[in-house]
């Protein structure tokens, strides 16, 4: 178990802005600004980015779960912070940092699961869309409501438009309406919706994380990287690229072990090589 905090945590805050705990190959990052619905302040984003970089280098971690403390997952950017410092420099820093954080989630070698309860709005919805998988409570709600306050969700649009069909993304962006978890599931924004209480959401998320963590870490890294590279390619180029990935993957020690274990009807023993 471990906990980390950004050094810029306000002095009147008893808890760190970000919590981390590890176990059984799974890292948990908990956004920890519950009174602000885990709004993404600069300090919080810096803390998340630092932990993502540390997790990416940690061979013991095979899966990352991102969750929020309190009543919701994440309400997006800290609008009060953006209002308090109207300088272009601060605004550029804020959105550049957010973009780098989201890209770090996608680029992380480990698969990432968003565990969502309450609201996930604007950059919070962007974070869900940036994760590889998402499990949501039945009462979770998702939205890109920036248009309602005169600030179109342009950066959240990048992740959202890559996670859900175009017309559904445009409806969310143009209306600013919140959508319920079952509709987010139908759109493909989340993988699973869990009825019941917080314990049920935790159980479903932990089960999914454990199932992914049971695989070869090297194969997971290879597959995740290949997925995001090929998805942007023309069809023929994607097949050429992934055929090469398959050939390389066949040379892994874990592939030899996995195929052997399958043929011998036993459980594979992964080495990460």
UniProtKB/TrEMBL annotation:
Pfam families, alphabetized: ECH_1
Gene Ontology BP terms: fatty acid metabolic process
A GO term, aspect molecular function: hydro-lyase activity
UniProt cross-references to CDD domains, sorted A to Z: crotonase-like
InterPro entries, per the entry: ClpP/crotonase-like_dom_sf, Enoyl-CoA_hydra/iso, Enoyl-CoA_hydra_C, Mitochondrial_ECH-domain
Gene3D superfamilies xref list: 2-enoyl-CoA Hydratase, Chain A, domain 1, Lyase 2-enoyl-coa Hydratase, Chain A, domain 2
Alphabetic keyword roster: Fatty acid metabolism, Lipid metabolism, Lyase, Transit peptide
Signal peptide residues on this chain, from the entry's feature table: none
Role this protein plays: May play a role in fatty acid biosynthesis and insulin sensitivity.
Family: Belongs to the enoyl-CoA hydratase/isomerase family.
Name of the protein described by the UniProt record: Enoyl-CoA hydratase domain-containing protein 3, mitochondrial
Organism: Marivibrio halodurans
